[in-house]
Design a protein that fits this description.
This protein is an alpha+beta fold and 236 residues long. The protein has one domain. It contains seven helices and eight strands. The strands form two sheets. Strands 1-4-5-6-8-7 form a six-stranded mixed sheet, with helices on both faces. It has a two-stranded antiparallel sheet with strand order 2-3. α1 packs across α3, α2 packs antiparallel against α3 and α5 packs across α7. The longest helix has 16 residues. The two termini are 25 Å apart.
Length: 236
């Protein structure tokens, strides 16, 4: 059975948001329609799992949310998404590809001058910890060359809701979802610096410490418009 190229699959799914009739874009529109008042990390994660499994299941692989996981001293850690070989409705062996997916408003990570806060920003520090996170292989499973314990893809979803200045939303969400900072283009210093902050202090960095996925979409629901930007770091 052919081993899937998960990197290409994910890039294809994210790029598809630029097409008005793509399945993933339609899922994103539905999420925005029903859950616009929430942070949507779990909703987008589950939509990505569904899209991946459309491609993976014919190859006898499957993506699982919140796997792999481990419990140490009564504390449970979970990956956002793990991809496994799949047989008889169950995963086989260890994860072959691991994804961390995080969702932020722009101003969580950038100040008014478009600079990220680096070490002073606890949100960025948390993203760096997610990138460096490793999981041990399952002890009762033989180690295979294609097993993965690292973060193979770090996918960051940035959201902007310019219409969100309303008392219905928490004050912090109003503050962080509004006007975009200047100079946040695809190759801007601020975006490149963010990629470097996320992937720093780790022996296995992403190639060139730059986002190899950078795609945006504006979703319209009635009079509302919400901007989503997907940024991805792949393990080299």
């Amino acid at each position: 059975m052919q081993q899937p190229n998960i990197t290409i699959m994910i890039e294809k799914i994210i790029i598809s948001i630029e097409s008005s009739n793509s399945s993933f874009r339609n899922k994103l529109k539905e999420i925005d329609e029903h859950f616009y008042h929430l942070k949507q990390e779990l909703h987008i994660r589950d939509a990505l799992v569904k899209e991946l499994n459309t491609e993976l299941l014919p190859l006898q692989y499957r993506a699982y949310a919140e796997r792999p996981r481990e419990t140490v001293n009564r504390t449970t850690r979970r990956r956002d998404v793990g991809v496994y070989k799949f047989a008889k409705h169950l995963p086989v062996g260890n994860s072959k590809f691991n994804i961390e997916l995080k969702y932020h408003y722009y101003r969580d990570l950038f100040n008014k001058n478009s600079k990220n806060h680096g070490e002073k920003n606890t949100d960025i520090q948390s993203l760096n910890e997610d990138w460096k996170r490793t999981f041990p292989v399952v002890l009762d499973e033989p180690k295979r060359p294609d097993d993965s314990k690292d973060t193979d893809l770090f996918l960051l979803v940035l959201c902007r809701r310019p219409w969100g200045d309303n008392k219905f939303f928490a004050a912090r969400d109003r503050e962080f979802s509004g006007e975009l900072p200047d100079a946040l283009g695809k190759d801007s210093d601020a975006i490149n610096a963010l990629a470097q902050e996320i992937s720093k202090n780790h022996a296995k960095k992403s190639a060139k410490d730059k986002f190899s996925i950078d795609h945006s979409v504006r979703i319209k629901n009635g009079e509302r418009e919400t901007d989503y930007r997907f940024l991805g770091l792949f393990r080299s």
